[in-house]
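Quick check before the chapter quiz. The format below is the same one you will see on the exam, so make sure you can read both the input and the output lines.
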Amino acid sequence: MSVRSRLPQLSGETFITDGGMETTLTFDEGIDLPHFASFVLMDDATGVEALRAYYASYLEIAAKHGVGIVLDTPTWRANPDWGERLGYSAEGLADVDRRAVALLEDLRPEAVPEVIISGCIGPRGDGYRVDSRMTSQEAQRYHEPQISTFADTAADLVSALTLTYADEAVGVADAAEAAGIPSVISFTVETDGRLPSGQSLGEAIEEVDARTGGSVAYFMINCAHPTHFAHVLEEDGGWRSRIRGLRANASEKSHAELDEAEELDPGDPVALAGHYRELQKRLPNLNVVGGCCGTNHRHVAEICAAVTR
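Here is the expected output.
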């Protein structure tokens, strides 16, 4: 049975992810990422080695704790709009997607119970605001080329991170279902716990499930600090059981503040891990944990220890 037909993380066992790839490479490693695009590193040997070292730090955590890991390809920005700004053709982007999956295939160590390869999809727009809204049909057409490319590789699923409104999520899910590959939808929220579109998290999840027939494997929250959305998870609703993943920011700052920041705010890894531990009480199926902006392997190591305690 293929991994796509039996995603191991749906069993409830703990899986970690990586942390804030772009912030780690930019602020910790001093690597220039034009338009915050890490996929450009796939085009030279030095960049590939930087990515290998980045992933290795998380694989070591998974091996130490005996947990599985979901590794995202460095392709969050590898869509047509951002690719055009960076001088990439459609075929050039597809080639990057294929090579990114092959890189993660090559990194799979025997010491880690399960290594799940996720083809990472980013929003068409900024990720912090709704600046290029599409209908779900437009979003399906827009994201279809990248999703179809991943479907023809060894990727086990596609994960759409930092989505800001429901229509784009529906389009991604529909494109993935048509391509025959599982999808994960991860919304970001503002400091009030609502999506940048203004919709509540629960309503967004319920809408996507209703419009896609529940085709999404599970939902996640990323690129927000737990203090921004913990209160929302006190609300009643079966939608909470659909959230399996959390990739929080290290900083309690808003998206607007982070956008203007010239220095990284790494927050407190131990305190962040404590928030995850508390959120386990409100999210009955939470078992895929990692980080987003400002987090690195130290944060994820603390989070892993906290949730498996």
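If your answer matched, good. The chain has one domain: 10-307.
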